[in-house]
User: What shape does this take?
Amino acid sequence: MLRSLLLASMIALVTTESSAQAKLNRGQKLNSDGAVRIYNLVGSVRVIGWNRDSVAVRGSLGKGNSFHMGGAAAGMKMFVEGIDERNPAPADIEVSVPMRAKVWVKTATASIEVSGVTGSLDLYVVGGNIKVTGNPADVNAEAIDGSITIVGSPSWVRAKSASGDVTLDGSSSDVTISTVSGKIDVDGTRIERAKFESVTGDIRFAGSFERGGLVNFDTHSGTVEVGIPAGNGADFEVASIAGKIDNRLTSTRPVAGRYGRGAELTTSSGNGGTRVVIRSFKGPVTLLRKD
Assistant: This one.
């Protein structure tokens, strides 16, 4: 009898674990430029672009979760639904989509990772992290507490976070990045039009500007560091109401700001050609040369 009870307990445990980690393996036809909407509260969402006119979903569902998917060749949506909406079990899903697909993903604390997609991306998280790798047509990414990392060369970027850091490693012709307390870190080439804004978060830029562009840096109390390579032309207009300006880029020295407070600097690097405006209330600003 004891052996029977132990065997029954083991079978029940295996059954419970199996149901807690139900496996996903679903597929559906989708046009090469079709739209995909993905919703998963907790866990992770990984999206991979591939050279097929279809969508494939793999992964595992947490206990009590159910997966729903439907739509047509032009567009489809999928979502994970939990029995307890206030405390859902984590679900980890991997979705392969046509490379040119338009992808929308929304989560609560699930992380989002996208690679190989050349269409448009709309990504939203509350407490998870977002990472994009590749060259999508445009990226719109928003996080509350999570970080945002973009590695590649999207044509158009909009990234916003409250306390999370935002990192861009690549190039883009149109960029807007904003944070409250998170750090902004940009290693960019061929940046043409851009706006970088923070409240208390630091802003670091290391890269080059496209000639004829306009780039703005704005912060309340965060530090601003801008480094460009030799020969990259830029016309700088820098003002800090209560902070310092350290110019290691050119021989021009800052002057006292208006009303004798803070500092201001107007200078050009190389042959100029790109207007760079830096505004800070009390955060220090540093200009330097990057090799």
About this structure: Helices lie at 2-20. The radius of gyration is 24 Å. The chain has one helix and 25 strands.
